[in-house]
Write a structure and sequence with these properties.
Beta-Lactamase, rod-shaped, 3 domains, alpha+beta, 501 residues, Heat Shock Protein 90, Helix Hairpins
Length: 501
């Protein structure tokens, strides 16, 4: 096991430099510079070789055509066939011309007649021998051929020796290939020049590579410097040296990264402030019943002969305060459960109409005490995938709040509707309404709109926070509209089919 962990650690250490942006920029710039320079060197050398071979072939072929004309004019091949022909001076000149051409290009020239026999060989090796090859046959058909053998360093050329005669009518010309000149010329001078050119190009390439390496190091450092600054600023925030928003405006990318981090930082500050406020509110809400209980208990202790009726009254108040504290703790636990992951949801398909009827049946006795009429309007039957406990909590909290914060002889209207994707649960009332400046805070924990009447109305200030958390767990939305003194309307929209995240 330890060996496997050690091997995995070594792999990570080996991969770490390759994941570095600086290393990647260095490699990319280096490759971008080196590859074209290497290709350029090979391109220059190869291009020179092709052009030099082409020019040498063209130049030699021109001279060979001139020699071929001399051969025809001096009946060189015909005289060779005549064994008794005298060796004329003109033939000596042609032989000298062939030798000079062969020496000039460090090559070899062979004259081949129509019977494929070698008439003349500047190497004096193959005279009288028969040579049959594809190139020679093509040349007898009137085609000039040229072949470059780079491996052995020579160019092989074939040149037809053409005799042009005028027909008896005087109008047409007849061309007859009397022989072929098979020439091999050395390319040593071209290869030597290529080696020199390649050496100089290699020196230039090495200088370019050194410059490119330096440029790559410089660019990789300069281009990644803003990201290092971002890391330093984030580390300052992490270590607690600063809590200010950071700014690195060098690149558009760094601006986007910094903006995203600043938004997260702002969110973290908000969450921290909310957490501190929540702790303070919890401490206050829990301390208030405890203080009341202590005051009541102390009042009883200082009275030696307190009547039983007073004891009973004080004990009822103590029980009421204990119930209130218990309700706060219960709501806090419910809120904590809401903050857990979605896997705690027990999703089942339920008849929402029947559920609403049952909840309203439980709450109507509370409404009758305040003489509040509860009306239920169901537009269509609805079956949805919901968590029954949390959905009951949503409906109960909204309807109970509408009853509690209503006027006497008021009304509460509950409406169910649905489309092909969502169902809506709307609770409207004729109650006290919510001031406009309080609408943005009603879902905050322990927030109460009317603090002066909160004690007599009851509640913990956690109901709407719990309701919103339950709605969000169902991937739904909750909206509110209210006019102070006229009433409030909450609209909850929940998907018919629960989609797990």
């Amino acid at each position: 096991m330890e060996k496997d962990l050690s091997k995995f650690k070594n792999i990570l250490e080996w991969l770490a430099p390759k994941r570095s942006l600086r290393v990647r920029i260095f490699v990319i710039v280096l490759a971008t510079g080196i590859i074209p320079s290497v290709l350029m060197r090979y391109g220059i050398v190869n291009n020179y070789e092709e052009r030099a071979v082409e020019q040498r072939s063209t130049s030699v072929q021109t001279q060979l055509l001139t020699v071929a004309n001399h051969l025809i004019n001096n009946h060189y091949i015909a005289n060779y066939r005549m064994q008794n022909a005298a060796y004329h001076t003109s033939e000596q000149i042609i032989d000298a011309e062939l030798e000079m051409l062969a020496n000039l290009y460090d090559g070899r020239v062979m004259i081949i007649d129509s019977n494929f026999k070698v008439v003349k060989d500047t190497y004096d090796i193959s005279e009288g021998k028969t040579i049959i090859s594809e190139e020679v046959i093509k040349c007898f058909r009137g085609e000039n051929t040229s072949h470059y053998d780079a491996e052995h360093g020579y160019i092989e050329l074939t040149t037809p020796i053409v005799d042009t005669t005028v027909a008896s009518s005087g109008d047409n010309q007849n061309t007859v290939v009397q022989g072929v000149m098979l020439t091999s010329i050395s390319t040593d001078s071209i290869i030597t020049t290529m080696e020199i050119l390649n050496r100089k190009a290699l020196i230039l390439e090495s200088m370019m590579i050194m410059g490119i390496v330096g440029l790559s190091l410089f660019l990789s450092y300069v281009m990644t410097k803003p990201f290092n600054r971002i890391t330093e600023e984030i580390n300052k925030v992490k270590n607690g040296y600063t809590a200010e928003a950071i700014s690195v405006p060098d690149y558009a990318e760094t601006v986007h990264i910094v903006d995203a981090f600043n938004q997260v930082l702002s969110r973290m500050r908000t969450l921290d402030d909310s957490r501190q406020e929540f702790v303070a509110n919890v401490s206050h809400e829990l301390k208030t019943p405890m203080t009341s209980i202590k005051v009541l208990a102390d009042s009883l202790l200082v009275q030696d002969n307190a009547p039983a009726e007073l004891y009973r009254e004080f004990m009822e108040d103590i029980v009421s305060e204990i119930d209130r504290e218990n309700q706060i703790i219960t709501d806090l636990l419910a809120l904590v459960k809401m903050d857990k992951s979605k896997q705690d949801l027990n999703i089942v398909a339920l008849n929402i109409n029947d559920m609403t009827e049952l909840i309203l049946k439980r709450l109507r006795p509370i409404a009758r005490k305040k003489d509040v009429e509860v009306v239920f309007e169901s537009v269509r039957p609805i079956v949805a995938e919901v968590d029954e406990v949390r959905m009951t909590l949503i409906m109960t909290n909204l309807v109970e709040n509408a009853i509690k914060y209503n006027k006497e002889h008021g009304w509460v209207k509950v409406k169910l509707d649905a489309d092909h994707q969502n169902f809506t649960f709307e609770v409207s009332d004729s109650g006290l309404g919510i001031p406009e400046d309080s609408l943005a805070h009603i879902y905050e924990r322990f927030y109460r709109v009317d603090k002066s009447h909160s004690r007599e109305i009851g509640g913990t200030g956690l109901g709407l926070a719990i309701t919103k958390s339950a709605v969000l767990l169902h991937r739904g939305t909750i909206t509110v509209s209210s006019t102070e003194g006229e009433g409030t309307s909450f609209l909850v929209k929940i998907p018919l089919n629960y989609i797990a995240q």
